[in-house]
Amino acid sequence: MLSRFQNPNLSSISKTNIKLLRHLLCNPLCTLTEPTPVSEVTESPELPNWVKFFDTKRPEKAVLDEDFVIPSLANWVEAQKLRDPSKAVKRPLSETADTDDIDKVCRILKNGYPSLENAAQALDGCVSDLSNSLVERVLKRFSNEWVPAFGFFIWAKAQTGYRHPPEAYNSMVDILGKSENFELMWEMVEEMVKIGGGYVTLDTMSKVMRRLARAGRYKEAIDAFRGIERFGVRRDVLSLNTLMGALVKERSVEHAHEVFLEFKESIPLNPQTFNVLIHGWCKPRKLDIARNTMEEMEKHGFHPDVLSYTCFIEAYCHDKDFRKVDEVLGEMKDKACEPNTVTYTIIMHALGKAREITKALEVYEKMKRSGCVPDTSFYNSLIFLLGKAGRLKDVQEVVEDMTNQGVKPDTLTHNTLISSACAHSQEEAALKLLKNMEEESCKPDLKTYAPLLKLFCRKKRMRVLCFLLDHMFKNDVSIEGGTYALLVRGLCSNGKLENACSFFEEMVSKGFVPKDSTYNMLIKELEGKSMEKEKKHVEKLMLEAKEQEI
C-alpha cells in the first residue's frame, strides 16, 4: 500500500505539495479556511441574497436540563446512538454504531493520522467496494476540511479498479478553491487536462473562476477565462456570463464591465449578459449606469425583460422606496412586460420586512388575479413573514395550501419552518420538522441546523445538541468554522464553559482560525469563573492557530 503513495506516476500533483500535505496531516492547524458565518443565508438562485427567511430574535432563557429530551421524540433521538457530550464532536475509532463503508472511512479520516502513509494503511481494506457514490459523499462530508478530503482523494485514486469520474475531480477542485489552496487547485485542473476525454468542462472552470473571485483575485479569474480554451472549454457567451456573474456576486461589477468591454465585439452576447451587468450596477445603487446598460441592451437588439426590470425593483425594495417600485411596475405595464413570481416575491418580502403585513398579503392576492402561479420560493417567503409576525396558525394554513396547489415543500421551506419554531422556542415542533424532513427524504443543509443549534445551546440541552451534530454528519453536512463559532459563543453565553472549550479546541484542530470576538468572549468567561488551566490552554490554542495563519 505504501509503495502506491511513493510512486511518482500515481499523480501529477507536485512532490512539494505532497510533502506539504504530509506535514498538514501531521499538523492539521495548517488548514486555514476562513470561517463562513452561519448567518449568511443562501437563498433560491432566483431570489436576491437579502431576502432571508431566518429570524435571529433571542427568546427568554431556558431552564437548565442538559440530558432532557422531548418524550415524544426520545426514541428517534436515542436511535442515533448519541456520543458523550464531554467528547464534543470527536469520534473514537472503536465506535461501531455505524458499519457502512462511508462511516468507516469518515471515522478513520477524523482520527488525524501522523502521516499520509499511516492514513492510507488505516484506509486500506476498510472499503469492500469503492464506488463513485461513496467518494462523492465522503468529499461532501469533508468539503470544509481540505486536508482529509485531499488525502482521501489521493488514496482512492491509487485503488485498483477505481478511477475518479469528472464529478469527483470537480468536487476536489471546488474544495481546494474554497480553502484558497489555488496552487493545488490548478495542479488538479492540469491533471484533468492530461486525463483528457472531456474531464475539464465549463462546470470545472466555473468553480475555478468563482473561487478566485470569492478570494478577491479578480484579475486571476479573468485570466482563467482568457485562457479557458487551453483547457478544452469554449470561450463563448455561456462562459462569459459565468465569469461576469461571479464577479458581480463578489461585488466587483467594475471588473465585470471591463470584461464586457473587452469581449463584446468578439463574443456574440445574449440578454443575460446585459442583465448580469444591470443587476451588478443596481446592487451598489448605481442606477443611472444600470439604465444606460439597459439602453445599450436595446441597441444590441434585445428588449429589456422581466429580469431587467426586477433588478431595479429589488434595489428599490431593499431601500423600502415603494413609490419607485410602483413606478417600475407601471413602466413594465406600458411595455407589456408582466411581473413574474420572483418579482412578486421580492415585493411581498420587502413589504413584510417593513412590517407592512397587510400590504404584503395584498401582493399575494394581486399575483393570483394576474394568473401568476406561486412557486416554492414565494410560499417560503410568505411562511417566513407570517411566522415572524407570530401568526403560526396562518403558517400551517399556507403549508396546507401549498400542498393542495401541488407545490412540493423543499429544503428551504423546512428551514423556514424550523427557524420560525426555534424563534418561538418551540423545541418539540422544531425537532419534529427535522424528523419530517428525514421521513420525506428531504436533504437538510447547514441552514437547517443553525437555528436548532442556537436554540439548544440556549436551552443547554447537551444531549440533543450532540444528536444534532451526529445528524449533520450522517446527512453529509460538513461542520465549518461558522458552526463551531456559533457553538462556542452559544455555550459560553449559557455557562457551559467546558463544552465551549471542547468545541474551541475541535475548531482549531480542524484548521479554522477563530475570530477575535469568539476568542475574547471565551477568555472573559473563563476569567470570570477563575478557570486558569482552561484559560491557558485556550490561549495556547489561539496562539498556535494565529502562527499557522501567518
Automatic annotation (TrEMBL):
Q: Do you know which Gene3D superfamilies this protein is assigned to?
A: Tetratricopeptide repeat domain (1.25.40.10)
- Pfam families, alphabetically? PPR, PPR_2, PPR_long
Q: Which UniProt keywords apply?
A: Repeat
InterPro entries this protein is in?
PPR_rpt (IPR002885), PROP1-like_PPR_dom (IPR033443), TPR-like_helical_dom_sf (IPR011990)
Record-annotated PROP1-like PPR domain positions: 353-522
> What are the protein's GO molecular function terms?
mRNA binding
PPR repeat residue intervals: 270-304, 305-339, 340-374, 375-409, 410-444, 480-514
Q: Which residues cross the membrane?
A: none
* Similarity comment: family membership: Belongs to the PPR family. P subfamily.
Per its record, how is this protein called by name?
A: PROP1-like PPR domain-containing protein
- What organism, scientifically named, is this protein from? Prunus persica
